[in-house]
Amino acid sequence: MPDKKIALKKLEAFLMEHLPLARAAGICVDEYTGNKLVVSAPLDKNINDKGTAFGGSLYNLCVITAWGMTDLKAKELGLKGDIVVAKGEINYLRPLKGRLVASVTSPIEEELVHIEKSYKSRGKAIFNLDVTVLDEQLKPCVKFHGKYAVLAS
Questions:
Q1: Residue 85 is part of a domain; what is its CATH number?
Q2: Element housing 141 (H / E)
Q3: Quick check: 68 and 77 in contact, CB under 8 A?
């Protein structure tokens, strides 16, 4: 687990250094198990006029969470290059009145094998990831689907 903790700290440091929106939103990289990444932000820095989480902040958190999983898995697979968001689609299901907590699960092993082969043969790997934001009652507030590309440099 120490390698995963180091990877988590490096990811959070990168986000804080390079993404002003992550800093402004108070983004924290909370957990990385190798299979699941959890990223959160406080409500008070991401609140709208209705006292709930601002939609743009939720979108930002989801994009960053999926980008983080792409970055971590790309490094584990030895894929070097730029990570870009190719597509992001969000569904807002209910208002969120507490801390913004997003989680994403790694692609399954079979998909990771395909991603690695694609990178080696074409210089491009595609990650399709689903992020969920739950409320305190564990009801889904947001579902996000993102498509990310790792482009060989």
A1: 3.10.129.10
A2: strand 140-152
A3: no
CA dihedral 10, 3, 32, 117 (to 10 degrees): 90
Ordered per-residue pLDDT tens for the chain, 153 residues: 458 889 889 999 999 999 999 999 999 999 999 999 999 999 999 999 999 999 999 999 999 999 999 999 999 999 999 999 999 999 999 999 999 999 999 999 999 999 999 999 999 999 999 999 999 999 999 999 999 999 998
Tell me the residue range of the domain where 88 lies.
2-152
**Structural domains in the chain (count):** 1
Task: Write b or e for each residue in 4-21: b if 16 or more Cβ atoms lie within 10 A of its Cβ, otherwise e.
Answer: eeebbeebbeebeeebee
